C-alpha cells in the first residue's frame, strides 16, 4: 500500500492553514475524527450525556476493537484512559514493590517516567538503574542482559524518546524480558501511529500510548495494553465501581479484564474519536504510514544537515519521524518562534524533559520537527527556508 497524499491532505483541513511539523506534540486530526467528536457532543446537547452514551454504545465499543487491532492485542487487553501518562502510571503503580527491587530503564526516558521511578525508589527503597547505550545511541541489549538478576522487578523503556528520532529495539528488549521472566513496560506514546507496533512481536507485558500525537486522535484520550499473562497480578492504584464490583459490605472484586485500569466517568466523544482515528490509520496501512513518515524524516535530516550552521542530533540505527536540530548562534526557542511566525509549527525539547540524555550528551535545548504522512517535501522546504541565517 502507498499513501494517497492528496486524499489525506484533503481529509486534513489544517493543511490549508499551516505547515504542521509538530506531530510529536499533537497532530492535525482528520476531519473524520473531528466530525465524530462533534457529532457526539451535539447528541449530548440534544438528548443528555447518559442517553447519548447509551445510544452510541456500539461506536464507543468499536474503539476497543480498533485499538486492539492497531497494536496486535485482543479487546479485553485494552483500557481506554485520559492520556498516555495516566495509562503508564496506572500500570507502573500497580506493581507490588518491595525494598531491593530494581528498575532497569533507558537513558532516553521522559521526565514523567523518571519522576515516577524516583518516587517509588524513595518510597519503597527501590533502585533505578539506567542501562548504557550501544554505539548508535540506542539502549544496549547486551548491557541489559548483563544487568539482569533476580532482583529486577521491571524493565521500563520508552520506545521513541521525545527528544529525537531514535527508535529503541523494543522486540529485542522484550526477548530479554521474557527470557528472564521480568515484567516489561513499553512507553509507546511517540511510536503508535507512526510505526507498526505489535505487542505480540515486541513481547511487552504493558504498553501505554496517547491519541493526540501520531495517531491523530482527540486530546484527552489514551490507552493501556495489559497482557492477560500479567493481568491478575496487578491491582490498580485506585478503583471505582467500574474497575471493581462492591460484592458485600466489606469486600470487592476487581474486574477480570484490562478495564480494571479505567474509571467510570470518561470522555465518550473522545473515546469515539479515538476509535475513528485508529480505524483511519488501519485503513491507510501501518507499514505504508511508517514508510512515508520515516522517508520524509530522512529527507528532512539530509536537507538540514546540508545547511551551514545547522546540526542534526538524532541517534539510533533505526530512526523515525522525529527530527531534532540546533542552529548555531540561535536559541532553540527563538528558532521555533521564527518558524511559527512563518506558519511552520515545530516545538522545543528542553533538558528538563529528558535530563539523563541531555546531560550525558551535553545538549542544549533542541528544535523538534516531527513529520507525518500528510506532510510534503514542500513543507520541508518551507521549514528550511524560514530558518534564521547562520
UniProtKB/TrEMBL annotation:
Molecular functions per Gene Ontology: transaminase activity
Domain Aminotransferase class V: 20-383
Pfam families: Aminotran_5
Cofactor requirement: pyridoxal 5'-phosphate
InterPro entries: Aminotrans_V_dom (IPR000192), Aminotrans_V_PyrdxlP_BS (IPR020578), PyrdxlP-dep_Trfase (IPR015424), PyrdxlP-dep_Trfase_major (IPR015421), PyrdxlP-dep_Trfase_small (IPR015422)
Alphabetized Gene3D superfamilies for the sequence: Aspartate Aminotransferase, domain 1, Type I PLP-dependent aspartate aminotransferase-like (Major domain)
Keyword field: Aminotransferase, Pyridoxal phosphate, Transferase
Protein family per UniProt: Belongs to the class-V pyridoxal-phosphate-dependent aminotransferase family.
Protein name: Aminotransferase class V
Organism: Microbispora siamensis
Amino acid at each position: 500500500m502507498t499513501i494517497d497524499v492528496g486524499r489525506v491532505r484533503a481529509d486534513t483541513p489544517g493543511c490549508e492553514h499551516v505547515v504542521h511539523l509538530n506531530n510529536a506534540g499533537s497532530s492535525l486530526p482528520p476531519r473524520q475524527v473531528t466530525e465524530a467528536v462533534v457529532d457526539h457532543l451535539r447528541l449530548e446537547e440534544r438528548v443528555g450525556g447518559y442517553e447519548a452514551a447509551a445510544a452510541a454504545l456500539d461506536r464507543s465499543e468499536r474503539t476497543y476493537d480498533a485499538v486492539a487491532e492497531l497494536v496486535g492485542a485482543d479487546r479485553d487487553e485494552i483500557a481506554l484512559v485520559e492520556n498516555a501518562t495516566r495509562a503508564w502510571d496506572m500500570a507502573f503503580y500497580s506493581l507490588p514493590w518491595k525494598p531491593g527491587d530494581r528498575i532497569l530503564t533507558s537513558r532516553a526516558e521522559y521526565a514523567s517516567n523518571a519522576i515516577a521511578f524516583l518516587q517509588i525508589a524513595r518510597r519503597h527503597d527501590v533502585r533505578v538503574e539506567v542501562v548504557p547505550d550501544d554505539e548508535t545511541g540506542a539502549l544496549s541489549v547486551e548491557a541489559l542482559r548483563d544487568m539482569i538478576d533476580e532482583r529486577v522487578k521491571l524493565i521500563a523503556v520508552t520506545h521513541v524518546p521525545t527528544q529525537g528520532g531514535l527508535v529503541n529495539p523494543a522486540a529485542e528488549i522484550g526477548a530479554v524480558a521474557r527470557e528472564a521472566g521480568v515484567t516489561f513496560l513499553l512507553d509507546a506514546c511517540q511510536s503508535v501511529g507512526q510505526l507498526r507496533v505489535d505487542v505480540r512481536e515486541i513481547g511487552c507485558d504493558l504498553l501505554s500510548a496517547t491519541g493526540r500525537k501520531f495517531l491523530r486522535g482527540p486530546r484527552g484520550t489514551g490507552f493501556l495494553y495489559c497482557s492477560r499473562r500479567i493481568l491478575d497480578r496487578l491491582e490498580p492504584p485506585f478503583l471505582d465501581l467500574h474497575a471493581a464490583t462492591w460484592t458485600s459490605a466489606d469486600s470487592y472484586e476487581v474486574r477480570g479484564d484490562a478495564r480494571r485500569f479505567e474509571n467510570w466517568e470518561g470522555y465518550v466523544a473522545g473515546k469515539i474519536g479515538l476509535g475513528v482515528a485508529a480505524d483511519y490509520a488501519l485503513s491507510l496501512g501501518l507499514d505504508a504510514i511508517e514508510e512515508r513518515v520515516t522517508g520524509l524524516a530522512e529527507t528532512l535530516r539530509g536537507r538540514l544537515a546540508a545547511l551551514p550552521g545547522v546540526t542534526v542530533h538524532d541517534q539510533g540505527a533505526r530512526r523515525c519521524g522525529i527530527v531534532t536540530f540546533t542552529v548555531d548562534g540561535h536559541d532553540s526557542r527563538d528558532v521555533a518562534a521564527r518558524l511559527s511566525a512563518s506558519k511552520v509549527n515545530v516545538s522545543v525539547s528542553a533538558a528538563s524533559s529528558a535530563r539523563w540524555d541531555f546531560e550525558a550528551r551535553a545538549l542544549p535545548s533542541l528544535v523538534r520537527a516531527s513529520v507525518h504522512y500528510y506532510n510534503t517535501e514542500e513543507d520541508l522546504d518551507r521549514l528550511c527556508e524560514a530558518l534564521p541565517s547562520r
